[in-house]
DNA sequence: TATGAATGAGACTTCATTCAT
DNA sequence: AATGAATGAAGTCTCATTCAT
């Protein structure tokens, strides 16, 4: 299911190249990264990359696909094993955070170049996956409203939008200069802010 | 006497062109927008743009500068007239939201191409302004912690980071397809989420 | 004889504009100077220049024509009133130097952009004038050889070439930073070098 | 370890391209030569040049640098092995002439576009080298004045200026239409003119 | 006379991609 | 697997010139 027509066998070299590319994409965005830069990082000439991939986009494709598979998979199992929407949401937050830290590059790519990717047939699965993700969140939030855990006046879709973007934020902090938080700190901070707000009780 | 070499006088035509460019930048990002697209939108040839601007970047410069002036100005007056940090923060949120809706393009530009801009001398003021903004937030949050309004265990810098990015989110929703919220709804949702979290009391 | 089809009447404004243009040409060369720079110097817009001239080249034309008229005229009267070729040459040197200092721009234009001008029909007179100049020099040098004033082994054409270019040199020094010589000093130095060389006797 | 980032290794193809470019620069000047003309001469598309060089200017840089290294190197060894300033100067003249004929293009570039190059940081070495060249000449001329070989009333700097430009002249004659002199003839003519003037004894 | 706006040709440059070796 | 060279499309910018007002 994951392989398209041309997807070459995942040799070690290939995997290494994807990782190099992903790091560059994470730093500068997909479009802003040139094939030459990737090749430079690998110590080869840009033309030589085309022995491993048939295009720059197919590198992007591989990175994005793995990311979304990871996230969607995580959400599915988060929801499955949770009766309480509050628990489900906590699991989803933790699962998201973990997936994001495993696929930092994918996030930058989606943030910076969403319009670019989503306009292409090849990347139609992006929209599909995002829809499933959105639905999962909304389902849990609605469930929480109905059983009284969450405030009844929440606009589930609005909160989802906020949450989705909020969850994405900390990833982009990694490797940035200045104080850096541990993932756990961030997640806990997030959850607390989410459930309780900043006001003292 | 009134004209400086570089800060070309803001003729009507010029202002109009900047608006057209800003719309495109908002849609597709600064780098992804070509000079020709801007010219097409204006119904002229791409070279003709250079009658009004010396470079694509100087268009970007103008848009970003106005935006940051607006935001920083808003924060200053928000802080000045507020004894209670809670009030200050509410004012800052409202002021941000207003500024962001006035300068939608600037935000997209910063989000998509921050690395590109901030690496250039010409855009050094971006970092300067961001620092002032950060400090303003942190000051108010710390004040709130000390006088007991906010939870004592808040990491002010962490919360600021979250907030900053959260505030930016709704802007990118405008003009997007699907359900759209009114600005007031969004701001109120945000403030409520911020102060109280999603949990029912 | 000096007017071509379109040559506008030499109003004061026009003359002033030509002087401004000439200064810029002298500094940076004809091609390297843009119409906009000329207009800027005059405090008008570049399009407005076309009320006075039908093209950038016609400005160049006027400058070059005046210069060559001046030089050729000077040579003619130098030769007329001189029995001794030594005297004729001294007069030619002084006349050249004077003409060059009056038309500094023309020189830069010819030096930098000779290939450009001389390839155009419009500037055919450049070649004509240069031929007359060359012939005048060669005539005097040959005369000097025959009557024993100059060394019999001089290659007149070679010496002319050297001299022509040598005479042009000091002009380009004016306004340059560092020590500057008076015109008289330069001319005397030149003449002495020419007639006697640098060796002590 | 041998390759620096910018000073791309001199492949054969690269060297060939530089030679082609240099010929064009010599003919028409640096600025007046377009990248497309260079590419045409090489039988490739203009964009393909950028596989070998990062810019037109870097081609110019390479040509100019080699030239100045050659000239300065030649002057140094001319001065080292010569007790008599007269001998030193003769060596310098011969060394200049040789270097100039090896780097004809560089000369045209400096003559036509000196203002353009010398205004750029990248070409700061031009000024440095010119200063060393000037100082070398002046030193030898002063030495000759003091030991009585040269006339005591010579203005060393003035003579240098004349000489420098005079030495440059013959190069521009090569390949020009009309009678052409052999290099030796030119140099001997020059030296004789320099030491003895044109007057018969 | 001058302005303000625009044209159009052509300059330099970038970059994903191809391909013979 | 990789190199070295090239393509070709597209992008930013320059500049002499035109023209309605």
- Which whole number gives the mean pLDDT of chain A? 86
Largest interface (CB < 8 Å): A-B, 45 and 44 residues
Q: Which structural category fits the helices and strands of chain A?
A: mainly alpha
Oligomer: homotetramer
Work out the strand percent of chain A: under 5%
The CATH architecture assignment of the domain at 57-196 in chain A turns out to be: Orthogonal Bundle
Give the end-to-end Cα distance of chain A, rounded to a whole number of Å.
51 Å
Q: Name the helix and strand elements of chain A from N-terminus to C-terminus, one letter apiece.
A: HHHHHHHH
GO molecular function (chains A, B, C, D): DNA-binding transcription factor activity; transcription cis-regulatory region binding
Keywords (chains A, B, C, D): DNA-binding, Repressor, Transcription, Transcription regulation
Protein name (chains A, B, C, D): TetR family transcriptional regulator
Organism (chains A, B, C, D): Paractinoplanes tereljensis
């Amino acid at each position: 299911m994951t392989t398209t027509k041309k997807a070459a066998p995942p040799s070690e070299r290939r995997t290494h190249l994807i990782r190099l590319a992903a790091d560059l994409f994470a730093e500068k965005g997909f479009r802003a990264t040139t094939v030459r830069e990737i090749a430079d990082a690998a110590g080869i000439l840009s033309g030589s990359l085309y022995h491993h991939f048939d295009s720059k986009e197919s590198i992007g494709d591989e990175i994005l696909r793995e990311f979304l598979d990871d996230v969607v998979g995580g959400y599915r199992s988060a929801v499955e094993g949770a009766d309480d929407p509050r628990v489900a949401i906590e699991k989803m937050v933790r699962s998201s955070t973990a997936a994001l830290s495993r696929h930092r590059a994918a996030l930058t790519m989606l943030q910076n170049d969403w319009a670019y990717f989503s306009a292409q047939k090849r990347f139609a699965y992006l929209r599909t996956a995002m829809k499933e993700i959105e639905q999962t969140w909304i389902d849990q939030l609605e469930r929480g409203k109905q059983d009284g855990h969450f405030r009844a006046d929440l606009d589930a879709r609005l909160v989802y939008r906020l949450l989705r973007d909020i969850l994405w934020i900390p990833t982009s902090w990694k490797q940035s200069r200045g104080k850096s938080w541990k993932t756990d700190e961030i997640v806990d901070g997030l959850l607390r802010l989410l459930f309780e707000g900043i006001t003292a009780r």
